[in-house]
Amino acid sequence: GAVVSQHPSWVICKSGTSVKIECRSLDFQATTMFWYRQFPKQSLMLMATSNEGSKATYEQGVEKDKFLINHASLTLSTLTVTSAHPEDSSFYICSARTGEGRNYGYTFGSGTRLTVV
Amino acid sequence: GQNIDQPTEMTATEGAIVQINCTYQTSGFNGLFWYQQHAGEAPTFLSYNVLDGLEEKGRFSSFLSRSKGYSYLLLKELQMKDSASYLCAVRAFTGGGNKLTFGTGTQLKVEL
What we know:
The complex is a heterodimer.
Chain A: E1 4-7, E2 10-13, E3 19-25, E4 32-38, E5 45-51, E6 57-58, E7 67-73, E8 76-81, E9 90-98, E10 105-108, E11 112-116
Parallel strand pairs in A: 2-11
Antiparallel strand pairs in A: 1-3, 3-8, 4-5, 4-9, 5-6, 7-8, 9-10, 9-11
Chain B: E1 3-5, E2 9-13, E3 18-25, E4 29-37, E5 44-49, E6 53-57, E7 60-65, E8 70-75, E9 84-94, E10 97-102, E11 106-111
Parallel strand pairs in B: 2-11
Antiparallel strand pairs in B: 1-3, 3-8, 4-5, 4-9, 6-7, 7-8, 9-10, 9-11
């Protein structure tokens, strides 16, 4: 089945620095990937939709200059948290659209636990 | 926008059956997903409904009524490893394409 690899699984960074999270589709081409953020005991909140070769579409309230998304190839999307602050500490999860037709599904990466100190 | 409601917590006994409900309000409905998520891990796919009725997959079944904006996930022969958060997610078509929105999740605790 479709596998999405997300790296790193956890990262600790200093306030003010930038962190890059990678999401790779291992055995399929992902034209569309999604980035979510999940705070403790809350559900997944969609941050942005990433389409290969074009600019990402951000959800309302998500700063595009702070959360940089690049989807330059059919197997890789990256999320860079710039000038990270402690309030950016969260669980970040990517997913890729999988399957054909109207009833396509989603495969999730294993998530990245970001802690900003 | 979308509004998805599910109970926050449920407790059940090993070997029993539990039903987790999900109600939603949305326009452009285009499918409902159930995911299982263990703490600190990514969600894993359980089931998908787009038409009314019951979908059965081993110990897990999911039901959908589009007219009532209602779905449930049924877990049979509960095992301790089923203790997890269960997420209801609704896909809807918006002006910019399909969007998947998650409910807050139901934390299920399976006890002996």
